[in-house]
Specification:
The protein contains 2 helices and 9 strands; from the N terminus they run αββββαβββββ. By secondary structure, the protein is of the alpha+beta class. A 6-stranded antiparallel beta barrel has the order 1-2-7-6-5-8. The longest helix is centred in the first third of the chain and has 26 residues. It is globular and about 40 Å long. The chain starts with a helix and ends with a strand.
Length: 174
């Protein structure tokens, strides 16, 4: 085989292998996004003796969103959120999230930062074991929003992002 013939076969083959190598390397690098979550409830009760926070009449939907550059927003059933504490290598069980518990008390908003552990959902009552990090947790309150810190999740078609790849996404998981 002549040098010209080898080049005619070798260069396209080398470029194909290079392209495949880059494609496979990029496919192996799984993109992740930092998701934040919001849970709402009509009322709450805190027991300082057992460090339990009960969210009464909790919404059946937990909201999620990301910030730039991947703008993703949506909602999922709260029942599907609870397994984040027990499933996966990056579960909340090994690294419990912090959360800002925001309570409207009359015309006053009270905020307490806590660490959330061991969620239990029983009908429309969601109970967490909490560790108060900052602020003072009231023993009861109404119009509650719990803003839960980041958890990294993959941006795959089966992730919370949904199948569509857009600069801004909305999804619902049920």
């Amino acid at each position: 085989m002549t040098i010209r013939a080898r080049s005619a076969v070798g260069v396209p083959l080398a470029l194909t292998l290079l392209f495949l190598g880059v494609f496979v390397a990029n496919a192996a690098e799984e993109k992740k996004a930092d998701f934040l979550f919001v849970q709402t409830a009509k009322s709450m009760a805190f027991d300082p003796d057992t460090n339990t926070l009960k969210l009464e009449n909790v919404s059946p939907v937990t909201l999620f969103f990301t910030d730039r550059p991947e703008r993703i927003a949506g909602n999922m059933e709260t029942t599907k959120f609870i397994p984040f504490w027990s499933e996966g290598a990056d579960s909340f069980k090994s690294d419990p999230p912090n959360a800002d518990v925001s309570i409207i008390d009359g015309k006053t908003m009270k905020q307490t930062v806590v660490e959330l552990k061991d969620p239990v959902l029983d009908n429309n009552t969601l109970t967490y074991t909490v560790k108060v990090i900052e602020g003072e947790m009231p023993t009861e309150g109404t119009e509650v929003a719990v803003f839960i810190d980041i958890i990294g999740r993959p941006l795959t078609p089966l992730s919370y992002a949904g199948v569509a790849r857009r600069s801004f996404r909305r999804a619902a998981l049920y």
